[in-house]
Amino acid sequence: MTEPTKTIVRRRPTQRRKESPLSEEDWVDAAIKILKDDNVRGIKIDALCKMLGVTKGSFYWHFSTRSDLLVAMLDHWRRRTTLNVIRSVSGAGVDPKSRMKLLFALPRRSNSPASAQVEASIRDWSRRADLPRKAVKEVDEIRFDYITGLFTDMGFDHDEARKRAYLAYCILMGDSILSGTLSEMDADEFAAQALMITATLEKIDG
After folding, report:
1. What pTM does this model have?
2. The CATH classification of domain 16-63, taken from the options 2.60.40, 1.10.10, 1.20.120, 1.10.1200
3. Contact indicator for 82, 147 with CB cutoff of 8 Å
4. Is domain 73-199 classified as CATH 1.10.357?
5. Per-residue pLDDT reduced to its tens digit, 81-140
6. Distance of CA 114 to the CA centre of its chain
7. Three-state secondary structure along 121-185?
8. Following CA atoms 193, 195, 199, 200 in sequence, which dihedral angle do they give, to the nearest 10 degrees?
């Protein structure tokens, strides 16, 4: 009796999305995309390798564990959405009111909706885990301190500057959530109105 012919199934070669070796930032960017589209539970080594078209060896070249990747992702978020923004606004070389106006305009920039989605996912994650909770707290403190400094530069004393900074930060964060569904004002009008509300010379009653 003749043996049946065996069918040889050849594995398709892994398709790399980049010709050059992947960097740590490539892995972080991929993790952030999953976080934005899904949530932190979707950030798995297998899923990342499939997305980037590489084997696990490539992942472990850059990170010892998944937790190391999550730390790098949070650090990237802090640097990109806070430290780099502060550096850019401060480098504009304008007076503190104009810098505050630049901050109020941020939620209306073309890349802001995606950034807002990432931030919302990280803040949601922070309600369940210490690692992102500490990162969010640090980011909020850095942003708040910077805005406080702007109001101090406008001439308000420390306590008054902190009150106005808190109000300004609430307005800024609220607009980042609502601007995608409500469009009562364009970016310039919103920034001008928000600045008028927070930087008026009358003292805020404590």
Report:
1. 0.83
2. 1.10.10
3. no
4. yes
5. 999 999 999 988 789 999 999 999 988 887 778 888 999 999 999 999 999 999 999 999
6. 8
7. HHHHHHCCCHHHHHHHHHHHHHHHHHHHHHHHHCCCCHHHHHHHHHHHHHHHHHHHHHCCCCCCC
8. -20
Q: Where does residue 205 rank: exposed (0-12), middle (13-18), buried (19+ CB within 10 A)?
A: exposed
* Closest C-alpha to 33, from 55, 48, 23: 48
Quick one: pLDDT at residue 182? 80
User: 149 with 128: CB under 8 angstroms?
Assistant: no
Structure tokens at 160: 């008054």
Residue linked to tokens 């850019």: 88
Chain centre distance of CA 186: 23
Type of residue found at 24 = E
Helix 112-126 to helix 130-153 angle, to the nearest 10 degrees? Answer: 130
Q: How far is CA 64 from CA 122, 124, 206, in A?
A: 22, 25, 50
CA distance 138 to 127: 15
**Tokens for 114?**
């995606």
